[in-house]
Amino acid sequence: TLELPNKESNQTPANVRHRKHRRGGRSSQGHGSGRCSGRESLDKALASFLNWQQSAEERAEAPSPSVYLSKRGNSIRQHQGTLQEGFVQYAANKYHVTDNPEGIINLGTSENKLCYDLLHARLTRPDMLYVEPSLLQYSDWTGRTFLREEVAKFLTHYCGSPKTLNADNVVVMNGCGSLFSCVAAVICDPKDAILIPTPFYGVITDDVDLYSDVKLFHVHLDCEVTIKDYRAFHLTVEKLEEGLTKAKQEVAVILMNPHNPLAEIYTPEEMIAFLEFAKRNDLHAIVDELYMLTVFDESVTFHSVLSLDSLPDPLRTHVMWGLSKDFAMSGIRAGTLYTENRELVEALAQLGCFHGIPGTVQHQVAQLLQDRAWIDNEFLPENRRRLKAAHSFLTGELRSMGIPFLDRPAALFVWADLREYLQESSFQEELNLWRCFLRHNVLLSCGQAFSCSTPGWFRIVFADQHLHLGGLSQHLYLLFILCKLYLFSV
Ligand SMILES: Cc1ncc(COP(=O)(O)O)c(C=O)c1O
What we know:
Layout: H1 38-50, H2 56-59, H3 71-78, H4 84-92, E1 105-106, H5 116-123, H6 145-158, E2 170-173, H7 176-187, E3 193-198, H8 203-209, E4 215-220, H9 237-246, E5 250-256, H10 268-280, E6 284-288, E7 317-322, E8 335-339, H11 342-352, H12 359-370, H13 372-400, E9 413-417, H14 427-439, E10 442-443, E11 445-446, E12 457-461, H15 466-488
Pyridoxal-5'-phosphate binds next to α7.
Region (Disordered): 1-38
Protein name: 1-aminocyclopropane-1-carboxylate synthase homolog (inactive)
Keywords: Pyridoxal phosphate
């Protein structure tokens, strides 16, 4: 079965009947009555489910091997992430409030679309438009000195480093995806593996594998809360140790703080314990702090590992940060790595020529990072205020629909538990539900794209314009109702 409502092809809105929920869950009635646009739109939406002509699997079929490509080229070409079909459809049919109001709303890509006005105002100030000969010439492939110096100052301040960070320890590339790829290429050999707790931001699998044939070894975190595991998806040193005993050829561990997709913020004590685990086992620790300033509850403080008085294993600890999330600029392509390991910096410099950022963009990034008045007085407070409002809007909607989720005041998304809407606990059913949303023009990300061990979890990005979310409220509500109706149908 592919599309949820097509399971029984003779089903029509009129003959949808209720059946017992497989987990004896709630009835579909009584949720926010009056908010759905009524029986008519429900019928319309359900009928459009039934008109779904082409199977999504057909559309997602991988291309046949090309005679023009090597085996590696073919495997790269054929490689399709689980959710690729959604992004292909989205690219062809993007929502736009006036030009394409029926288009697909993208709540699947982790982007902050709340602050374009602030960024536009800052990026069009005269200091941004600057050209001098050196910016148009080849340069240091780890990033221009003026930019690495600004990054070092920026990280010293915003990570709360007790010592001044050194610009020579900074590498700048076109995004953290490139940094993952390059770091994996120089600390691992082909077929080596990197330990990573799941669920995790799944694109890292491709980042380390496509060029370098480095694999990730998953340490599965469980969603169930027990006496021992008082937090869902609780990461502990014991679990990392256990993962390591099962794994072979591990050379590194990836830690994310704040976490994608859980939005979890780990305490300094937890991070020290993870770093000590890495040290005990001679593992590099790649610490991804891409969302470090995207924490929007004043009562919660994020602590960077760079704020520690000393790192357990400084030569094997490498900290990533970039502009994609905290500065809502994923299109600028700027990622940074801080490492005290000079040999690693030298090796990365060799690969940097494939991953450089244009000189003029490096100038803009440096201007932005040094403008503390704008960052502290304009951008960060307003960005946090908008993120908080968007987060409470989405979580309010989820609460009113009775959908459980991890309530964390960080990152750009909410990790929501839609297990109740699966006909059975399987990843195929999870994909069916994901396709059901897509069919109705809402693109989400489902747990299997993050290697989540339990089917039914979805990541929902909330950092979209209020207008979208306003329209979305009814949209999502209708979809959840449809999913419920389907579950209850005979
Ligand atoms: C945790 C995490 N790391 C790395 C990346 C890649 O970021 P960049 O845009 O800098 O390549 C992302 C993007 O979503 C992310 O969420």
